[in-house]
Amino acid sequence: MLTLATEIFAVEELAPLIAPPEVIAGVAALVFLMLGFVTFAYRDVANRHSNKTSNKSNGHDAGH
To answer: Which of 19, 41, 56, 64 has its CA 20 to 30 A from that of 8?
Structure first.
C-alpha cells in the first residue's frame, strides 16, 4: 500500500525552464555586470563634481 508521501512524490513533475540553467546564470551575471557599470558611471560623475560636496568653507556658512 502506498503512503500519501510516496504518491505525492510519484506524480511530482519539475516545472519546465525557459532556458537551460547555464543560460539563466549567464543572463543574471550580465545583469549584475550592467548594474556594476551603472554604479561605476555614477561614481565617476560624483568624483568629477566633488568640489560641490566638499567640506571646505566657501564663505556662505562662515560663522554658523
So the answer is: 19
Compute the C-alpha angle 35/33/41, nearest 5°: 50
The residue written with cell numbers 505525492 in the block is 8
Measured in Å, how far apart are the chain's first and last C-alpha atoms? 85
User: Which pLDDT tens digit goes with each residue over 10-39?
Assistant: 766 778 889 999 999 999 999 999 999 998
Backbone torsions φ then ψ of 47, nearest 5 degrees: -70, -30
Round to whole Å and give the CA distance between 61 and 64.
6
Give the position of cell 532556458.
19
